[in-house]
């Protein structure tokens, strides 16, 4: 177990190190001089002012030195200054990250609840219920997030006014009013994915020989379902849920923009448009890190769920 | 015999294959007395496993069962689901061929062994554990307490099959259904596991339906032998009469095709022709295409079990002299 944990954590650190170099290095490819952002306006920039900005922000240091300065800052929780917003990146993030976290958490809860319930019920009930559950989840997987977002906003926000079509609010009721539609939009295509995997793995376990053994011993059905079918199917279900939740971090930007939510996804899009490198780098790194950490966590929990992964051979 | 523990009368079974029904058991008539061991022998696909599963009604959805199954007077086909559960948990225990597939890989050995006692008998966990540890020791598992905490992949096939046997004994059933309990094991372990089953059975006066390909093995551990061919029992006779008095040409051919005494699991394929599946059987005797004694009537008239030799045989021209193969 500890060996397994060690290799996973080492792999995680290596991936993050490589990702940080790639993310920071990508600014070399970006056109233009970041200093001009600070000067602003259409006037031809004053060369002296530009030079002083270069000195102040160490823009002329070699790449390695700048990367190292950035990295040590990041490791201490400081993402540096944003030139375009004239603010610290930390402050920009702090204002927005809770919206994003709430949105992703809300969407994750919807994915798990609806996806697993739909998939399990489909496999257990079989027949026409299963056929329609399969069709619905396949359909859901095919709809792009921005389409479903616009549709939800129109139907439930504008026409029915059940929820706010856009904006953000505070507290539980605010989250419910403003974040329900975006969360559903974000969750939508993943629900189908989780439901499909859940259904096939529950189905496979239902047919398995060890379930036949449990039946042959007269174990009551609910116990067989819980201890043998769902327990054994939990590995793949958990894995796919983890991937789904990790994947949300990538699509959250689309939904935040569509519903006018002030989150870090929307900030990423805006910052990229403004060529605000420090902010883009910070958010990219956060997204990659959360994706990789979530995946590692999924691997660990999957291993914990299956004793065969961690322990030795017959003795 | 007054009233047998288990009796199958005119058992037939159809399963759904690709939307249409296919007959997999035609005609099984079989009894197992209290404490008696009956060997059910036949080539692959003859319907042995499905016969055993029918006794527990452990059948795929949509299965159509025909005929009567009585256990200790209870009509099994008519019993409701809760009666069926009680029946499965108390009266009969099944030992499956492949313990690695038939024991849940993600739960501990202890969980597997005690699950039935705890959930269907309401035994406190501690008590159930003490009981199964004693059973593990009885079936020759050393270090039982440690094994209880392990998982199936940490045990060899032979050990796992002992665990399966211990689990079967824990239920204190009246009948064991053993479906090729040694086929998945290596040769040396096979003999050990067979001896364990034999001993445990003798001690408890347990009845057993023992399924195997191996006629000699069945004759060695059973009181009676029933031979199946293409979904029907074709001969039923005392184990002692097998060599000298078997009357069905198929049984005789099986005996003749055995490679040599002491060498288990030899192929039965030495009989010319291919074994038929139950659904392929036409109007006459299912064995007719391969039978050296077949006559014209054999192709039109289906024989049913009737007294022959020391038991009964489903053959129009039974006889104990060896047919010329
Ligand atoms: N679930 C099923 N659906 C359809 N047909 C089946 C099913 N299970 C078994 N059969 C068919 O029924 C026939 C009898 O199967 P059964 O498993 O009882 O044979 P068997 O005598 O136990 O053979 P073996 O020695 O190979 O275990 C075979 O032809 C098999 O293909
Ligand atoms: S009935 Fe005829 S074909 Fe069938 S086993 Fe007897 S002799 Fe052979
Ligand atoms: Mg079989």
From TrEMBL, chain A:
GO biological process, one term: transmembrane transport
InterPro entries noted in UniProt: BPD_transp_1_N (IPR045621), MetI-like (IPR000515), MetI-like_sf (IPR035906)
CDD domains in the cross-refs: TM_PBP2 (cd06261)
Keyword Ribosomal protein carried by entry: no
Subcellular location: Cell membrane
Gene3D superfamilies named in the record: MetI-like
Pfam families: BPD_transp_1, BPD_transp_1_N
TM stretches of this protein: 9-30, 103-124, 136-156, 176-195, 236-255, 282-305
Membrane topology summary: Multi-pass membrane protein
Record domain ABC transmembrane type-1: where: 97-298
GO CC annotation terms, alphabetical: plasma membrane
Superkingdom, natural source: Bacteria
Keyword line: Cell membrane, Membrane, Transmembrane, Transmembrane helix, Transport
PANTHER family, sorted: DIPEPTIDE TRANSPORT SYSTEM PERMEASE PROTEIN DPPB-RELATED, DIPEPTIDE-TRANSPORT INTEGRAL MEMBRANE PROTEIN ABC TRANSPORTER DPPB-RELATED
Membership in a protein family: Belongs to the binding-protein-dependent transport system permease family.
Protein name: ABC transporter permease
Species of provenance: Streptomyces colonosanans
